[in-house]
Amino acid sequence: MRLFPLFADLKDRRVLVVGGGSVAERKVKSLLASGALVTVCAPEATPGLRELQGQGAIEFTGLAFQAECLEGVWLVIAATDDREINRRVAALANEKRLLINVVDDPGLSSFQVPSIVDRSPLVIAISSSGHAPVLARRVRERIETLFDHSLGALVALAARYRPAIRQARPDMRRRREFYDWLLDGPVAGALRKQLPEAAEQALENELRQAQGSTRGRVALVGAGPGDPGLLTLNALRALNEADIILYDRLVSNEIRELARRDATQICVGKSPGENHDATQARIHQLMLEHARAGQFVVRLKGGDAFVFGRGGEELEFLREQGIDYEVVPGITAAMACAAYAGIPLTHRDHAQSLRLTTAQFSKDTTAEDWASLAQKKQTLAFYMGVSQLDWLPDRLIANGRSADTPFALIENGTRSNQRVLHGKLKELTAQARRHGFKSPSLLLIGEVAALAPKLQWFGASIGPQELTSAPCASTTPK
């Protein structure tokens, strides 16, 4: 580590900025945000700097740099476009043992200005030691996504209650547990929902509990169809905070690897042929058991918890048991798989409506239902449809859907082994059997499916006769 990281308190301390251009203006504004008393030394200045001078926010000399400008300052930034002037400023600053930053010239600098993630009073600084500022910016962009903007309010709240927390939890271990609860529990959740009064009330209620016990909670998190890049930021945060993860069978390993390393992961996925009601009852009991033990439980579901999952049932159970919960939506399979296959679910020329349904319905579905499904100018998205392919196409055709209606069958949608089979409805059963399509597969039926061979950009495409790769396909999800 060549540079020693530190945070400088510049409030009411004089800082000299040499230069009056746009770069100098950016540095000045950052310094003013920290409370520094800024002097700008330059013969000319940008309109923005002139405006700050007019407001009395800065002192502007209007003169070229002289050694006397360094008197009484704590910190110096050289931001001119003349390297000789910058070199002279740096040499004189070093003689006076003043910390100096020369913009874009680490060789002349004794400190670097980092990229900043501002969640004040929490501030995160990133430095590449001045050698790769673009890389530092990219790292900052990634870190920005990991920390919700409500975190600053949480830190401020914790600071305000710090004496009360120390008094109520004098034991270090119990105090550490309390701060874990503060970061992971209902206080942080209320602040994310813009409910500051509820957050403060929850904190005070917890402080009043003599034992300081941690209350558990459950988050229903949609993991999407498989590509980890499709996780929402809130889903990623939940995975990094979870104590217990109850995951479905179809949640990809790549997504599970993003979870907190010491989290306990329990597979609760349902398998074909088993008693799904009994499995669901076990899931309910696991959520209850771990939440009552004070743990943060993530119920991780493929796709979205509220689209052909049992998310509603699970929330009803948690509410009955008095367990705190929240929901993190996921991208449902119809949206993601269609997009990765290049199929717009709606199109003003081909489909004005969309039906999400499951092929796991009874063959005794009413004639009216079948007639509705067979209407033209709509897209049908069938979840869990592979086991029904022997009879589903014939039933749709018998109820009025044209045998030449285009279809697309998407296996392992959004994953590296995605395949898309496309053709006409009358060919669906034979083609799916010929090419060995298996679960998980999503079936799209409708005029928009004819666009798949032309617009597909990802994975393998199978036409009636051959297997090809998409002409512009990526091998890795974006």
Explain this structure.
- With 478 residues, this protein is of the alpha/beta class.
- The protein has 4 domains: 14-113, 3-Layer(aba) Sandwich (Rossmann fold); 151-208, no CATH class; 217-331, Tetrapyrrole methylase, N-terminal domain (Cobalt-precorrin-4 Transmethylase, domain 1, 3-Layer(aba) Sandwich), CATH 3.40.1010.10; 334-469, Methyltransferase, Cobalt-precorrin-4 Transmethylase, Domain 2, CATH 3.30.950.10.
- The protein has 18 helices and 19 strands.
- A 7-stranded mixed beta sheet has the order 13-14-17-15-16-18-19, sandwiched between helices. Strands 3-2-1-4-5 form a 5-stranded parallel beta sheet, sandwiched between helices.
- Strand 9, helix 11 (253-256) and strand 10 (264-267) form a beta-alpha-beta unit.
- The chain is globular.
- The two termini are 34 Å apart.
